[in-house]
Amino acid sequence: MKGIALGTIVIDEDYTIVDFNEPVQKLIPAMAKNAKCYQALLGKDKPCSFCPVLRKEDCVVDVEQNNMESVVTIPLAGHKKQYVLTFLINAGRHEPSLNCLKFNLHASCITEPDKSEAAADYDLDQATGVYNMQAFIGRAQKLLDDNPHDSFNLIISDIKNFQLITATYGEAKAQALLRDVAQLTKECYTDGVVARYGVDQIVSLYKTPSLDTKIQISNRFNEYLQQTEIPNVIIKFGIYEDVDRGISVTHMCSKALLALNTIINDFRRIFAKYDDSTSQKQLKAQTYEAQFNDALANEEFVIWYQPKFNPYTEKIVGAEALVRWQTAKGIISPGEFLPVFESDGLIARLDSYVFQHVCAQQRKWLDDGQGLIPISVNVSRCSLFVHDIVERYKAIIDEYDLDPKYVPIEITESVALENLKIKPIADAFANQGFQLHMDDFGSGRSSLNGLNVLHFEAVKLDKSLIDFIGYKNGELVLSYTMALGKELGVQLVAEGVETASQLLFLKHNGCDIIQGFYYSKPLPVAEFEALLQAHGTANLKEELNQMLTNCAASSEPDTLYSHMPGGFFSYEAFGDEKILASNSYLWEMFGFDNEEDFMEHVHGSFKGIVSPEELDQVEESIAQQIKDHYREMDFVKYHIVRKDGTKVPVVDYGHLAHQDGKDIFYVFLYEEENQKQQ
Ligand code: C2E
Ligand code: MG
Ligand code: MG
Fold it and tell me: Using a 6 Å CB cutoff, which residues line ligand 1?
């Protein structure tokens, strides 16, 4: 029973023990999986009133209300003595994906301590060598009482992704890391009290240091992090400064923890101080969580669309779906509610809702006879790890009978550590025909390494990179990044483009797609549709339809083909590839002055247009391009054979349209040397 490290027990909604670790086993040898926890732990025949399972929804509330400890004094099953059981509810979390509650159990003897048996040892956490929580509470209180006139701070440090580190690098290395952090903390706060808190956190209470000391401590942590065996370790700190002596030590911990929780998913921040607004924020988060189900059911989450432009043609080539929360009090932006839903796992349901709504919208546009452009959706990293996400998304795609390439998926990925975990999921998405776009590239959340390990169709250059435009070094970084992206063959999308000079720079460096306020803010669907109408998409089919309409209105329908600049023809794709219509420029390119002779020369088929030895290659190239591109377009070069047998190099721009159940190619054909003038 000496020096027990923190035990962890996972309990499901039925109070059944799903799992537990070694310290628990040591404490309660009779502990068994599948046993009811109240029986195994306490020898009781029904759940206890303090059980967090009963109140999993308000675990955080309890912390705030200083019920964090849930201390009970009871005889443990199989033990004669009385023990204090402390449920550190905050250190445990409800895990929606498992439908389980995971919490930590800390037990210590409250009968008269056995002085002869190295009592100090008993107070220590075996794994880290610093105090355990029970000892901390007493010693921290004593430190405060012994120094009534000093100001004290309480800090909780948290090793980010500790579970992932354990899974990736093994228990031993992860525990060594935790021990190092604990010992380093102890060395930094020699006059303080340091303890292990939760699974991967260290708490300490210490006299408020001078600025110099703070800088020294910060430097020591930085130095340590630079030389850890495990790469990219991040430690976050929640600080409660100048603690209020009127509250209990556990309450002080909960305040530092609240501060910590506000930055746990914010990649930009390492420190957070507790102030009164922290509780307000936490309260807001709880309100959002409480309202989530109703908001989802009432379709309060609406989707806005931010168009993406081809900067060279200034046509809309796609859009990004961005969620907004439409409440009675107004619209809430994702920056406010997403971090809350990301930290509690609700985001997975929201992401899938957004995905489904975007698919439904695409289906509607398709049914209305509009050409589709890809609308990308964001999938948060938490959603990615939801069991069977790929199958679910594919099922939605199938339900709406869409091609997955019309709903690309934007993901951000952070440290290299996660790439290994994301890879199988990313591969599974790709295998189902989805396209992946790396979001927020250059923001610090995404890494070059991600490009190496995962296959992305597009990379979205983050606004923070775009904001460098105008600064020499920043421009250098950006242009090299873009060159690298080009080398890797990914499409470059610039995000957050606001000014003409940014646009100019990006065009100059070959950026493929622009998304930003310069062209348009995210728009509600009706406004987005209006913009599409006004601005036009790069959909050649629509342009052709427009031309057809114009020509029909001009009372001379035949003029359509004759008004096309250069050679133009249409043919039914696949099968015998029958030419449907052609214009006089085309006949002339072949040396004919009438359609009949021209058709005879080419056997009325596209196959007759291409010089025979190039035909296979050309058809293969067209098929590949149609498969690879968003727009069903191709660009090929080949030779045609004129009436007199001479071969002429030509350039072919083709567009595949699906009309009235038929697949029709519309092709512009230019002689290569004339192409530039065209
Ligand atoms: P994001 O995916 O990087 O989306 C781009 C964000 O940049 C959008 O913010 C957009 O409004 C903003 N933006 C675009 N152009 C400009 C510009 O020129 N200037 C400025 N200042 N901002 C620009 P928004 O809509 O507030 O979304 C913020 C983030 O929330 C998104 O960043 C995305 O990560 C997340 N998000 C939005 N919808 C969803 C969703 O359905 N699921 C998930 N998981 N995340 C979402
Ligand atoms: Mg995005
Ligand atoms: Mg982004």
Answer: 306, 322-323, 333-335, 338, 347, 351, 354, 378-380, 410, 439-440, 463, 495-498, 515-517, 522
